[in-house]
Amino acid sequence: MSSWARVGAKCVFIGGGYRHDGWNYPVANTVYTVRSARVGLEGLILLLNEVRNIVQSNGVEPGFGAYLFKPVIDISDDIALFHAPCPGLPVVPPAVVPKRQSVTSRSD
Length: 108
Prior knowledge:
By secondary structure, the chain is mainly β.
């Protein structure tokens, strides 16, 4: 399962996929919230809070392949990945690099 595809995750529909009559579909370049995720014929299938479909005769609500979506990465989440220490590794302060001195040449 994609690490971002979890309940509550925000994603953007990039378009494509099969179209079936009578189904509701997401709109391209629109942000959606994952309501549920399951494995289906197309791999990982997402159900969205903003798009609901009628449960079919097999007892399953139609969803959409996760490959049709990209995760929304919040800037604070993105920055946190680079500032959070790795579990199990000691936190080492960054090295202090001395300021570079400019070199001037003199003519005698």
